[in-house]
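Hi Y.,

Following your request, here is the sequence exactly as I used it, all 105 residues.
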Amino acid sequence: MEASLQITMQNVPPSEALAVRIRKSLAKLEHVHRHVTSCRVAVDEVDKHQRQGREFRVRVEVRARGHADAVSTFHQHEDVYVALRDAFLSVKRQLQEAQPDHRSA
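Below is the corresponding structure, written out as tokens. Let me know if you'd prefer a different format.
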């Protein structure tokens, strides 16, 4: 099943490479949990205040058949790809824990 995907980027320049990575992460998630119906990913740059450098926040919200609520999480890191990876891994763990007969992938 192909889940609907919505990607939102705020304070981050549009990046096709990042969008491709998000689609690949969703495909891996669908491989583990075939009942994913929708996925919303929000990427934004956190206000710097007195910090130097950039810091990104990634929020992933997934809806899956058999789950009353959306499974969501957010992760923050200087590397947007690390934040994305960590957010998808967290959602994957939550979905697996909700399945009594889950298998690690």
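The longest strand covers residues 36-45.

Thanks again,
Q.
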